[in-house]
Amino acid sequence: MVELVMNLFPARASMRPTGLRFGGFLSLCRRYLSVIVLLVLWQIGAQAGLIPTRLLASPIQILETAWSLTLDKTLPQNLLVSLGRAAAGLALGIGIGVVLALIAGLSRLGEDLVDAPMQMARTLPALALVPLFILWFGIGELPKILLVALGVKFPVYLNLYKGIRGIDPKLLELAKTLGLSRWKTIRDIVIPGALPDLLVGIRFAVGISWLMLVVAEQVNAESGIGHMMMDAEDFLRTDIILVGLAVYAVLGLLSDQLVRLAEGRLLVWRGRRLPNGGTR
Amino acid sequence: MAVASALRPDVDTAIADNAVSIRHFTRRFGESTVLRNLNLDIAPGEFVALLGHSGSGKSTLLRALAGLDPVDEGQIQRPKNVSVVFQEHRLLPWKSVRDNVTLGLDGKEWDQQAGTILQEVGLGHRTEAWPLTLSGGEAQRAALARALIREPQLLMLDEPFAALDALTRLRMQKLVLDLWKKHNCAVLLVTHDVDEALALADRALVLERGEIRTEVEIPMARPRRHADPAFEALRERLLGALGVSV
Ligand SMILES: Nc1ncnc2c1ncn2[C@@H]1O[C@H](COP(=O)(O)OP(=O)(O)OP(=O)(O)O)[C@@H](O)[C@H]1O
Ligand SMILES: [Mg+2]
Question: Tens of pLDDT along A134-160?
Fold first, then answer.
């Protein structure tokens, strides 16, 4: 049975941490080998003078800069600001996306009212709205958070809406034969059935939130990682810019992992059994 | 009721003591009439098997009885408590077996009841399992448990064993018989398997061109053996009605 489940979800199964077994460790090394080699070559090239460090700081330089930026609190402070904006924007965007998807997914009227405008609006590149947002909301926190929320709400809406509409009609029929109320049908069948799609949407959303934030913080900001990088540009500090990039990369990876963790928790039923489930 | 029976005595005396009463039921899909002027009574506690070709309207009849489709022409009288088991188990994969069984029933006492019923269908050891980890037969048994926990007066089964292997099917047939005796509900079993009908039912019906054309009483005592020669005549009649020559 375990095999059957793994075959159904091959991608998930292979993503599962293999623990500390030797084979798992080896494959982990192989995965990151090319990255490490690249970093070493980069360092050697910089030291040998093949790469002008004024244009591209060396890995060790970057590490040193990151350390000193941490010590003088520039990095943690800016990081905190960026994190706060991303979190606020994400929360707002996910909230709006979920509400709109529920409206459109659960009623025909809602579908007519919400879906068409959403499908049209999603073709607009959200980043093209930056100038407009600055005009409307000034240069405070609000336009940045709204920009993130704007970008985030689309993948959340689209995926959740698709999930709700894709619920197996046979299960809805079952609800009818069991005499389930509309509310219970939504709670027990529609929402859990659409949850996998919602989580896919949130994963996209998290990625988009960083993208929106990078732009928002570089166009106008007094703080944040993006601002730190723009400041560094004025002084030709490629090392600081690269630290900023590295921070974005790490944040992106971490947040993606976080969503995957939540997926694993919320969607246990897809692969594993309950802790005290029977054996076979 | 009194007025109605004065007007249509034939209808209402029947309705009074039957679990199911269908009168002049007609079901159309656009141009085609799937069920035409159909009449059917099922007594309380009676086990009825419904046979018929693919596309003859068995599921259509059952869906109308289950209240899934509107009844536009004719009358259908059915008990308040009906349960359906479909060909596919229709378990919610995100709920444990137990929560599937108690779906829509609030209260702690139901959890216990679910445990008892799951025990009855032989799933006592898998109450907390996820449906995706069940075998086909186990999933179908969970669906049976979900249908029975509501103590239905009418249990409808739409080819519930069609997807199971022969061995499991035999076991499930025995299980259904045991549960039927225990819960004492009327059963309408849709099947395409003449032997299954003969082994289980009190009465077998053959649906053909929108009407019940053949009706066979099966008076043999249970448990019945498939190979029992007493079945031969009945089997021939049913197969004949289905257009299979023997
Ligand atoms: N919603 C529908 N719209 C149009 N036609 C339908 C619909 N549902 C059923 N039919 C038609 O009604 C006829 C009877 O269908 P039904 O599902 O009741 O057959 P069945 O006897 O259950 O067959 P099977 O043994 O294959 O399950 C078929 O010809 C089918 O195409
Ligand atoms: Mg059918």
Answer: 899 888 899 999 999 999 999 999 999
Counting the structural domains of chain B, the total is: 1
CA distances B232 to A127, B173, B191, B198, B235, Å, are 78, 20, 19, 10, 5
Residue B182, CB-side half-sphere exposure with 13 Å CA sphere: 13
Tell me whether A280 touches chain B (CB under 8 Å). Answer: yes
What was the pLDDT predicted at A48?
92
* B117 in a structural domain: no
Q: pLDDT, tens digit, for every residue of A59-118?
A: 999 999 999 999 999 999 999 999 999 999 999 999 999 999 999 999 999 999 999 999
CA-nearest residue, atom 10 of ligand 1: B29
List of chain B residues with pLDDT < 50: 1-15
Kindly report, residue by residue over A181-202, the tens digit of the pLDDT. Answer: 999 999 999 999 999 999 999 9
| Helix or strand run (H / E) with residue B41 | strand B32-42
Residue B67 domain flag: yes
Q: Which residue of A has its CA nearest to B123?
A: A278
Domains and CATH numbers, chain A: 1-51 (no CATH), 59-277 (1.10.3720.10)
Q: Which atom of ligand 1 is nearest to the CA of B192?
A: 25
Q: How far is the CA of A1 from the centre of ligand 2 (A)?
A: 29
Q: How far is CA A84 from CA A91, A120, A217, A223, B168, in A?
A: 10, 30, 13, 12, 58
Q: Is residue B112 part of a domain?
A: no
B125: in domain? no
Q: Provide the whole-model pTM.
A: 0.82
Write the CATH number for B213. 3.40.50.300
User: Which protein residues have a CB closer than 5 Å to ligand 2 (ion)?
Assistant: B 59
Measured in degrees and rounded to the nearest 5, phi and psi for residue A50 equal -75, -30
Residues with CB under 6 A from ligand 1: B 29, 34, 52, 54-60, 192
